[in-house]
Amino acid sequence: MDFFEVMKRRKSVRSYTGKAPSEAQMRMILEAAWTSPVARARFENIHLTVITDKGVLQAIVDNVGDRVVRPGSPLYDAPVLILVSAKPVGEVLHNNEYSSAAMIVHNMSLAATALGLGSCDIWGAINLANENPELVKRFKLPEGFVPCCSLVIGETDEPMPVREVQEGKMAVSYL
What's the CATH number of domain 3-154, 3.50.50.60, 3.30.70.100, 3.60.15.10, 3.40.109.10? Predict the structure, then answer.
């Protein structure tokens, strides 16, 4: 599958079979993360946590509770969640850290698509996790790191056909 086909097949998958990616697939997905740009090349300020522990995944789900509008599990019963955390340069996380985390998640999502796996960016559940210090402790992050966002990954039965690209979908200005 070429790069542009991967981009046209990538979608937010919200239904998983329960089967996790193989070790080789996980290695490729992590390699995609490692190729991501990081603001000011501060790679030491990024930490990835691969979560397969059902207890920790359920704790994230339980923490969300009824605080989201979409019905069902906020992690869609995916077998793997990769948490992207950043160490703030100042007192709090800024645009640089969140932008870097988003690019890492997107690279991993494209890699999962290329491997025939489903994936979905998870932001809200991680934002809510940050309000629960006991839950954040369960992530066993290095000192000073703050969860930013995550990606769930797993095998899916959802079709991922090549989508038509709608020209003009977003406004474009030329200066």
Answer: 3.40.109.10
pLDDT tens-digit series, residues 120-130: 999 999 999 99
Q: Which DSSP symbol is given to 90?
A: S
**Cβ 135 vs Cβ 129: under 8 Å:** yes
Query: How would you write 2-49 as a 3-class SS string?
Result: CHHHHHHHCCECCCCCCCCCCHHHHHHHHHHHHCCCCHHHCHHHEEEE
- Segment 27-50 shows an average pLDDT of 97
Write down the H helix ranges in 119-159.
124-129, 133-138
Are residues 5 and 162 in contact, defined by beta-carbon separation less than 8 angstroms?
yes
Residue 69 pLDDT grade (very low, low, confident, very high; cuts 50, 70, 90): low
Whole-number Å distance between alpha carbons of 53 and 59: 10
- Interaxial angle between packed helices 95-114 and 23-34, expressed in degrees from 0 to 180 and rounded to the nearest 10: 140
Give the predicted TM-score (pTM) of the model: 0.95
